[in-house]
Design a protein that fits this description.
Blueprint: E1 9-14, E2 18-22, E3 27-30, H1 34-49, H2 53-59
Antiparallel strand pairs: 1-2, 2-3
Helix pairs in contact: 1-2
């Protein structure tokens, strides 16, 4: 398991593997499909906007279709 700062994401590519490029140029190969990462990021952003705070957003349940076993 690896956690990344979502504010440091530059882009996500599906090539067919999912490659996340960070703002510092580092590239990460991840199991989740690009769409699941996008949904997880949007879920995080919604939690922040609701005022749940960073801690609540970090521990919030991801969307039901996010994860390595869900395409």
């Amino acid at each position: 398991v690896c956690w990344v700062n979502p504010h440091q994401l530059q882009w996500i590519e599906q090539t067919p593997d999912t490659v996340v490029t960070m703002t510092n140029g580092e590239k990460l190969l991840v199991r989740e499909p690009a769409e699941a990462l996008r949904e997880a990021f949007m879920h995080y952003q919604r939690a922040i906007r609701r005022g749940d705070g960073l801690q609540a957003a970090a521990h919030a349940e991801p969307p039901p279709n996010a994860g390595p076993d869900k395409p």
